Amino acid sequence: QVQLVESGGGLVQAGGSLRLSCAASKRFFSMHYMGWYRQAPGKQRELVATITSGGGTNYADSVKGRFTISRDNAKNTVYLQMNSLKPEDTAVYYCRRFYPPNGIDYWGKGTLVTVSS
């Protein structure tokens, strides 16, 4: 059974940093793409960052230069380092595990990030 468990959310002041973690089940983890998405109150869920099995990354324009996605295949974990946080980064952050060639697509339950001004 695929499980994704996010952690690391919380309350931080603007300009601060947080690191989110997403622990995944081991099976085929290194082959799968991983991503972070977020959903702010009253808004649609949006892409934050993704990382392929080969380490290629993609970021939303709004977080480029501030956020860094990384993965540790030995620990079956993907991270999102968030620096220079802004109030508009406030959202529930979701981890996603996916692999387009075979349609695998799983989501975590989310972790809340609140950035105060």
Q: In this structure, how is the largest beta sheet organized?
A: 7 strands, mixed
| Rg, Cα atoms, Å | 13 Å
Count of distinct strands: 11
Mean pLDDT: 95
Fraction of residues in helices? under 10%
Structural class, please?
mainly beta
Q: What distance separates the N and C termini?
A: 40 Å
Strand residue percentage? over 45%
Can you count the helices? 0
List low-confidence stretches. Answer: none
Order of helices and strands: EEEEEEEEEEE
Q: Overall 3D geometry?
A: globular
How is the topology of this model organized?
Blueprint: E1 4-7, E2 10-13, E3 18-24, E4 33-39, E5 46-51, E6 57-59, E7 67-72, E8 77-82, E9 91-99, E10 104-107, E11 111-116
Parallel strand pairs: 2-11
Antiparallel strand pairs: 1-3, 3-8, 4-5, 4-9, 5-6, 7-8, 9-10, 9-11
Please provide a written account of the structure.
The radius of gyration is 13 Å and the shape is globular. It has no helices and eleven strands. It has strands at residues 4-7, 10-13, 18-24, 33-39, 46-51, 57-59, 67-72, 77-82, 91-99, 104-107, 111-116. Strands 2, 4, 5, 6, 9, 10 and 11 form a seven-stranded mixed sheet that branches. Strands 1-3-8-7 form a four-stranded antiparallel sheet, with no helix packed on it. The chain has 117 residues and is an all-beta fold. The mean pLDDT is 95.
Q: Short description, anyone?
A:
This protein is mainly beta and 117 residues long. Helix content is 0%, strand content 53%.
